Amino acid sequence: MALLNLHTKLSLLSTICLVVAVLLAREASLAESVRIARIIFGLIAVVAFCLSLLFLSLLALGPAPNDGIKSILRCFLSSTVALLQGKIALYRLEKHWRNPRRAQDRLLRHILLENGDTEYGRRYRLRDIKDREEFRARHPLTTYEHYRPFVEREMNGERNVMTRKFHSSYVSTSGTTGRSKMIPQTDRLKIIIDYLDLLYAIVRMKFPHTGIVQKQLFVYIAPVVSRTKNGGLVESALTIGDDTRLYYTTPPAGFRINSYEVANYIHLLFALRDRNIGSICVFFLSTLESMMKQLEQWWEDIVHDIEYGTISERLDLPDDVRSALTSELRDGDRQRALELRQHFVVGLDNIFPRVWPKLRVILSVDSTGIWPQIREKYARGITLVSSGYGCSEGLVMGISIWAWDEQQDLLFFPTINFFEFIRLQNTHESQPETLFLDELEIGQEYEVVITQACGLYRYRLGDIIRVTGFHDNCPSFQFLYRLGLMLNLRYEKIDQGVALQAIQAAVKRWPDRVKLTEFAAAESTLLSETCTAFERNEIMPYYLLFVELEFTSGNESCEEITQEHKALLDRELRDRNSDYDRLRREGAIAPPRVHIVKPGAFEALKAHILANTSTTANQYKVPRKLRTESLVEFLLHQVM
Question: Rounded to two decimals, what is the model's pTM?
């Protein structure tokens, strides 16, 4: 049977089981004198008949013909469990969205009672607080520095400082708005896995043609994990290990790889073997874009490995991981390799529906506004569904139940974090008035404040959201930006969304052969006199804008981009921010310095950040605002 494809195997197994069921049923009817024998024969016949139906059902679902029986059964079981658990979670969420205030009040009361008998709880008399109004009045708004000494004590082995429960995990933040923090968590992994099941159920319900035996390309790079003195793990918010759902194209061993390029290669290798995949899940779209750039360079090696069932020796893999992955490739798939080679030799234009004709949806977060580019370049006809809103402090905080192009809104999870909100105009205050989840207004912008079960109370995230409407009684919203990432030389406060729009609009008016790939900005006030970009004769502050372009003609030269072209960026910023326009008109801010960097500069920046900070590949987002002089210097060395 090893030479038969999966469809033939399923047909044979179904027929065999059906024949066995018929024969056993006949024996049961003949064994009239022996009641026990009749019962046994009857039960075995029923089991054989059910197995026959199962194999027929799997065959009807159209699994990949080169897959194995064991693999497809594991996929079916894993998918079914995830779907059922996700549907139950969604049903409960719908109930909470109908009455979010009740869900929030219950959650807050549980947190205060659970943590009241700790050193921190006694200090703030948490158990004595009766309701949310009293909580808001008695406990101050906080930032991480308020908790740093408590967290450090717990990490060094003290107990019952912040919570009664043992903190099994300390989430190291990506440090996008300052130095890294260690956020205590207790049930982090369960929350993440449950959330992935919920996402899976939403996709299956919204796109029912993604079958139960269609696997998913799940892009994941294993972060480095360490331990604290108290035995807790220091890890990223998105660490999941290799105990993953079996409906992923990559085998479990592939989720132990912590090299960015090697992990991407393995994910692509196993995903491209399977022409039947129905969805792709990647935490950030920028990661998918990087993966596709890697595919352009490595597709011949990947196709060779698919053809012969090998894994390239150029990949630095632990022996046990290589052995486990190689065994999954079996003897290779020459027919699939030939098919892929025919697709790749003509280029990667619209490659997703060509190599995966049943692919319908990509689950991801478009934090940089690149979905239109990715869709046009690789994925025409594919739908994007937001994989949600979260952070290291609150883990899972929002989810989308809509396709991105239909509605780019999210809904809050009212049972994981207790929410408060600060009006945007009051965010500069240290202790501003806050509103609760059921007090928000459509069209208004707010900073998010959370209280969570692991010891953070009235914690200011710095995330700015805009309320867009209501689903049942729960406000829907869009994430806008983080206060720590806002560009601000005087008082103009240009958020990264506005900066992106301005740069995109300016580049559209540049020569036709160039397209915007990436950008980042920095404030000149960041620079010291030793920095390459420091200008001694410039009195007024200015922005440094680093722009990476794609040259469609193949001639990578920016000679055609004149100072007049670069001045368009200033003009577009002035058109979008009246305070910036006024300050420029008054001469209080100098014109921006625009630097065109080499193709691949931002990939090099990513490698530099991953190698020199605690940021993990799963957490990484392009730093639209450069916060250190060293990053500015790095990109200055990449200027064309």
Answer: 0.76
